[in-house]
Amino acid sequence: MISKLRAFGEYGVALSLLLFAWWYATGPMELPHYLLPTPQSVGATLWKMLVAGELIHHQLFTIKNILLGLLIGTLCGVLLAYFFFKLPRLGHALEGPLVIMQTAPKIALAPLVIIWFGLGLTAKIVLIFSLVFFPVFAGSLAGFRGIDSRMHDLARLLKLRPWQRFYHIDLPAALPGIFVGIKIGAVQALVGAILAEWMSGNQGLGYLMTFASATYKTSILFGAVLLTSLLGILMHALLNTIESTLLAWSIEDDR
Amino acid sequence: MIKIKGVTKTFGVGADRVNALTPVDMHIEKGEFIAIVGPSGCGKSTLLRLIAGLEDVTDGSIDLGSKDKKRPVGFVFQDAVLLPWKTVAENIRFPLDTSAVPRSVSDAKVAELIALIGLTGFERALPKQLSGGMRQRAAIARALADDPPILLMDEPFSAVDLLTRETLNDELLKIWEQTGKTIVLVTHSVEEAAYLGTRVMVMSARPGRLRKTFKADIPQPRSEETKRDPRYLDLVSELRTMMREPVL
């Protein structure tokens, strides 16, 4: 509890310092506003958009895409990793091609994704999926392969059915590895969602950024960037909470 | 009860072939407590894993005399191998939960086992919160949960301190008397083997084989008194002599 309060305090101090520097640069230092808008004007713009309901709409659109891409990417990543783990021959045969695909810069392929899947939602989800899938797959595979061999002995002794074995032993045992993948994937999902919105469509925080920069509305651009960072921090905090709840068993107690 | 006929086990193929076990014949009666002792690499753990069905025999046959049972053996590993994400009670219940035993039945069974094994008050603890000895107790309870006629134990107490080990030995004997299970226990301690077993089998290494079987003619029930009994002391020294003399 005390350490949590302290973390909040440290965040607060860091944010205040940043805000002060920002204010100083735009106020006493007199930086032109088209380069750096004042914190007051960004706040006012965000507030106006919030009241108009616009902000929530864009925010929710981005969040929805991220969650959908993250969910599909995680499901596919974990399941394919399990197949690779269960069928080692298939795994070894397909691992090479997969690694090559993994090293391909997915962001550079984004225009291609738009060409293939159109300007709508599908392309956005596909792009996020491709960014989430690989880290989750890699983390899960490492997790499954790292399971203590005596756990497999236990499953054999108890003559567990494949489903029981997956649900009771393999999945929970690999969960720490899976979570490493999900946490990397979540950051990637945010990048993918913003990128996809830059490229097409008229909704979301990424769209807000391109709209604002095209029309020289720097305060909206700043607001969108701030909200995106905030979204990233929230996702990180949420995943950490889920992780510490689900994986309490794997964290050594200080005794 | 357990009939082991000409069982051999080799690992690897071609030039890497290793004979882990040369033909072993063994007859174990219902309710016996067999202690298998031998140096490392003598194949004692391999033999136990063969009986458990964790490895397939290269040659020969093993008959457990209980084909109808889904799980004829309970197995206790060297380390407890509890599922770290489940509580003590959930771990003990695990064999019952995975064979569709109704909750009311399994709850009663778990309560009974927790009392038998002396873990009352720790039902909801996670394995990481327990000491090594307590984890091993929970592992024994889990092995007993769906009432297998045979209990196999692979150096179950080698990871706990000496005092705990002696306590656990006594409790294991108590459990054996109360439940009438057939127990096969592998150990590298001759004292433990002589103290626990009704018969002690000595194995030797390179190649792994059964050298001699001793009948432990020491009165039951065994206790601290037993450790001063000349028959116990004789057996210990006989076993030790055999373990130390070079194999021809």
Can you put this structure into words, describing what you see?
The complex is a heterodimer of chains A (255) and B (248). Chain A has helices at residues 2-26, 39-52, 54-86, 88-103, 110-117, 121-145, 149-157, 162-199, 204-214, 218-246. With 255 residues, chain A is an all-alpha fold. Chain B has 2 domains: 2-72 and 148-244, 3-Layer(aba) Sandwich (Rossmann fold), CATH 3.40.50; 82-147, no CATH class. Chain B has helices at residues 44-52, 88-97, 103-117, 132-144, 162-179, 190-196, 230-244, and strands at residues 2-11, 18-28, 33-37, 59-63, 73-76, 150-154, 182-187, 199-204, 209-215. In chain B, 35% of the residues lie in helices and 24% in strands. The model of chain B has no long low-confidence stretch (mean pLDDT 90). In chain B, α2 packs parallel to α4, α3 crosses α4 (132-144) and α6 (190-196) packs across α7.
What is the gist of this entry?
The complex is a heterodimer of chains A (255) and B (248). Chain A is an all-alpha fold and 255 residues long.
Helical element count of chain B?
Answer: 7
CA(first)-CA(last) distance of chain A: 18 Å
Shape of chain B: globular
Largest interface: A-B, 21 and 20 residues
The whole-number mean of residue pLDDT values of chain B reads 90
The Rg value of chain A, from CA coordinates, equals 22 Å
In N-to-C order, the SSE pattern of chain A is: HHHHHHHHHH
Write down how many β-strands of chain B occur, each being a DSSP E stretch of 2 or more residues.
Answer: 9
Note the quaternary state here.
Answer: heterodimer
Count helical runs of chain A. 10
Portion in beta strands of chain A = under 5%
Overall 3D form of chain A: globular
Task: Specify the CATH class of the largest domain in chain B.
Answer: Alpha Beta
Uncertain ranges of chain A: none
- Report the count of strand segments of chain A: 0
* CATH architectural name of the largest domain in chain B: 3-Layer(aba) Sandwich
The CATH topology label of the largest domain in chain B is: Rossmann fold
